[in-house]
Design brief:
Elements: E1 5-9, H1 19-32, E2 36-39, H2 56-59, H3 62-79, E3 85-89, H4 95-104, H5 116-119, E4 127-129, E5 134-137, E6 140-143, H6 152-160, E7 164-166, E8 172-178, E9 184-190, E10 209-214, E11 217-222
Parallel strand pairs: 1-2, 2-3, 3-4, 6-7, 7-9
Antiparallel strand pairs: 1-10, 5-6, 8-9, 10-11
């Protein structure tokens, strides 16, 4: 019987993504022919809606972010047309849209046209999981994540006591722990596919990577 294979693609932060890194990840997925692809969130940056200080030019560039996001989503759909199941786990950057509307225009929150999938013209066959959500894939907890600590993997193992794959931190790390039962569990920070140079940082310890899950075992794949 064929073992199921899932490829997890981490933070892109379109339009501040690395095209070469994305091409590497998509080429890897095409070659491996996974049953499922999970986008780990922060696909689009939505800097224009951020609560952090930004220049007037950045604040006025929402339409450009949306257009770039549509282009990248179309690219992913086209390259992964043979993948039957694509899941988009919304991250904290997708949540910027929701928070912005809640704060300044709560009456508009109910309009489906202003949802992230609608604005970015997400293919109907994709599954969108709202911010804070997760999926279990072959017994592995897969989520965007919220932690950015010195020992993020260890904290995930402490908190969930199971195999975990998460994005958010942009770092490529993993930790395996042996339980008293003899079972080994692994937590992985999945890296990112965004540019290492952002408006708020130029020196960091980020890595381009992705994660596979096969036979219930997560594995970090570095570029």
């Amino acid at each position: 019987m064929k073992r199921k294979l899932t490829v997890c693609i981490p933070d892109l932060h379109v339009p501040q993504y690395d095209p070469a890194a994305l091409d590497w990840a998509l080429a890897y997925a095409v070659k491996r022919r996974p049953d499922r692809v999970v986008l780990l969130g922060d696909v689009v940056d939505f800097l224009a809606l951020s609560r952090f200080p930004k220049s007037p030019q950045q604040a006025a560039a929402l339409h450009e972010e949306i257009e770039s996001g549509r282009d990248v989503i179309w690219l992913i759909e086209r390259r992964l047309a043979k993948v039957r199941n694509i899941v988009w786990l919304a991250g904290n950057h997708e949540q910027r849209v929701q928070k912005y509307l809640f704060k300044l225009a709560p009456e508009l929150c109910v309009l489906p046209e202003l949802s992230v999938p609608a604005m970015l013209r997400m293919p109907k066959r994709w599954q969108y999981v709202e911010p804070g959500g997760h999926v279990f894939d072959q017994g592995v907890l897969v989520m965007h994540g919220t932690r950015y600590a010195q020992n993020t993997c260890g904290k995930y193992l402490d908190e969930y006591a199971c195999n975990v794959v998460a994005g958010h931190s942009h770092r490529a790390n993993q930790m395996t722990r042996r339980l008293p039962s003899g079972q080994c569990i692994t937590a992985i920070e999945a890296g990112c596919l965004c540019s290492f140079v952002q408006s708020y940082t130029q020196l960091n310890n980020w890595s381009h990577a992705l994660v596979t899950i096969e036979g219930g075992r997560p594995e970090l794949v570095r570029r």
